[in-house]
Amino acid sequence: MPRSMAWAIVAALAALFLFQGVPVRSGDATFPKAMDNVTVRQGESATLRCSVDNRVTRVAWLNRSSILYAGNDKWCLDPRVVLLSNTKTQYSIQIQDVDVYDEGPYTCSVQTDNHPKTSRVHLIVQVSPKIVEISSDISINEGGNISLTCIATGRPDPTITWRHISPKAVGFVSEDEYLEITGITKEQSGEYECSASNDVAAPVVRRVKVTVNYPPYISDAKSTGVPVGQKGILQCEASAVPAAEFQWYKDDKRLVEGQKGVKVESKAFFSRLTFFNVSEQDYGNYTCVASNKLGNTNVSIILYEISEPTSSTLFQGPGAVHDGNNGTSRRAGCIELLPLLLLHLLLKF
Fold this sequence. Notes:
Oligomer: single chain
Shape: rod-shaped
Distance between the termini: 163 Å
């Protein structure tokens, strides 16, 4: 057996005994100065350095009980492990493209005066956070309960936080992998953001959309006054999820699109009833009904008659200023000048 191979085997056995709690020799088991742990991110290169002096005759690097290098001879098959230096002062190796399975203890074993000594360094591999599981978008009726899940991996273990993305929301709603909401309200609908952070890299963020279904409620509806022969509009606004469907009634009769002189126009959140030429028969009480699969609601709106503005009112218009005293004084002045004018004419003739 080659001498170098025999030495490497001895070094490996010495390191193995040390890991098992059996020192190689009292007073000679470790170097005078312990090596610091090495921390690198996944995908980076880790350099393991072992300080030596001129008393050292043999050197080797081991990973647990496996020999990586003995002197200049490479014993492992991993191409990522390379020898950086083997000098009188330093014996160093590098592990390229580090992964999590590279984490663990590494031992530098040297022989001085025919006595082996070892020093151990721990390689710590940090991994950026990654969200591996998150709840799908969810739709639920108001008053129900939901549970959102966000599972992330990383080294060290990432911190998970949930935040409600809404103008009305304030701060974080949970600092856990699971977000529980009981008796959900429509104000709690919207997007929820899961953030995974462990200070290795920028936080990873994913979002879940929560849709809260609720029955319609009418937010705005006003009665309107219109003169005969003019255009009149009644409007009804309602909030609902799913969006409400609207119907208009006068007394018990439903008004439909295409009815003569009347137009029904409905959008997602409002409905408009337009009269192009209001007649006496159009005045009265109208009912707007908003409904979806969860319920319905209605409101009464009155179309009532107002007097048509007169021409004098239109002429005066808003902002016109009237001063009755000034008008009277001007008329009085004209009457007082009339006798003087007549007297002047008589004197001429």
